[in-house]
Every structure is written in structure tokens, then in C-alpha cells.
Sequence to fold (270 residues):
Amino acid sequence: MEFNKSFFLTHPSSVQILIFGALITSLWLAEGLILAIPVGKKWRHTFTNMLFIVTALPVQLFMTMFVLLEAAWISQNHLGLLQQLPRHQSILVKYVVGFIMLDFCEYLYHVIMHKVGVLWKFHLVHHTDQKLDVSTTVREHPGETFVRMCFLMLWIAITGASFELLLLRQTIQTVSNITSHTQFRLSDGVDKWVGLIFITPNIHHVHHHYQLPYTDCNYGDVLSIWDRLFGTYGKLKPDDTVFGIDTHPDTNVCKSFIKVLQIPFVSKRA
Fold:
């Protein structure tokens, strides 16, 4: 157990990649087998999305070095909101309260990416996927990856999140982000209860509907409570949900990695 704990704490990026790779591969195969999607058709769609890893992962790994250095410095100097709370070293405050604070920060980040024009140009790349499946998780412009990591550093400075909290948070976030993009949906009964607290595929699919106001709802990352609290929660029947974004309806563009990568520099939000 000590070896495992040491490995998880000293190789955070490796841990994230292993979890990410195993889960996304398993769900990708399950989607194809259970939903009887032809391998060739599914692979063509996935290949375009997987190319974004080539551009975004180096940015992610580079910025992670600064995130870890910042988290260590913040903890050593006892800075941030968490450090000011009573019993800040207790499990309840350090991990539970800290997780909730970071999740709210991610909700806020997502809203900002939609509402600030220059940032939306990068984030809309994620929304251009017209056939949502688990591979859509990695469809992120490297420009957004950089912005996202900068915001993470801001959230660490504000909250005083420790390295251990970040590792816990990122692990749960990875699982949540992958499962929320899968083609599988929960039954209405299960989703009704699970969705009261957590983001489910049913909830996140609505966010990927191609038209407003649904594009601007269900911003939650792991927890769905923020959308309910701030009035950004939305519901839409599966048969009425159309994936993509109405400002970029051209299928030929949305299927091309190069053309999608260029979108932030040649387009404007309608």
C-alpha cells in the first residue's frame, strides 16, 4: 500500500493518463459493441477527436509543472481560503469542503468560457462535435487547455488547495468528464435521483445541443447543484437533442481536425 500511495503522489500525470486511457478505451469499446456501431464508422469519428491529444497534451503536461509548484508553495505558506477555516487539516475541510469549492470554481470557469467572446472561440471547438461519444471528451483546442490550466492556478491561489486535494479532485473529475460524454444514458428513474447531485450523461447531453438556450445550461463539472442554484439547469428530451453548434453547421468543417483547429482565428460567435 505504501508503494502504491507513493506512486500516486509522485506521478500524478502518469496516474491521470492511466485512468483516462483505461476508462475512455473501455467505454469506447462498450459503445461500439452494445450500441452495434460499425467499427470503421466509429473509428473515423474518433480519429479526428484523438488528434486533439497531440496538440493539447503537451500543453497540459507543461502547465502541470507550474500547477504542482504553485500548490506546494501555497501549502507551505498556508495561503488560501481553506487555510483560514477552523480545523483546516481535518479530512472534512481539506478534502470535502475543498472539493466542493474547486467544483464551484470549475462551474464558474465553464460559464466564463461561454460568456467571454474571445474565450468562447476556443471552447466552441469542443461543441462542434456533431456526434457526441466518449471520444468527444478529448476534443479540446490547445488554446483552451492553456486557459483552463491558468484558471486552475487561479483557483489554487484562491482556495489554497493542497496537492493531495488536487489529485483527488482531478481523478474524480476525469471519471466524471469521460462518463458524461458517453453515448450511454441512465434510465429516467436513476437519472432523476443521481442527477440531483451529480452530472450525468443525460444532463450533459443537453449542454451539447446545438442551439441556445440549451448550449448555455448545465455547466456543472462533477456536481449538478450549481446549475440548480444559479438557474442554469435545463432539460431536453433525447429525441429533441441535436449535437453540434448552430454557428458552425458545416459537417465537412466539423470533421476536419485542421479546419476545427483554425476556428478560433477565423470565426465569430453569432
In short: Residues 121 and 263 are 7 Å apart (CA to CA). The mean pLDDT is 90. The two ends are 54 Å apart (CA to CA). The chain has 13 helices and no strands.
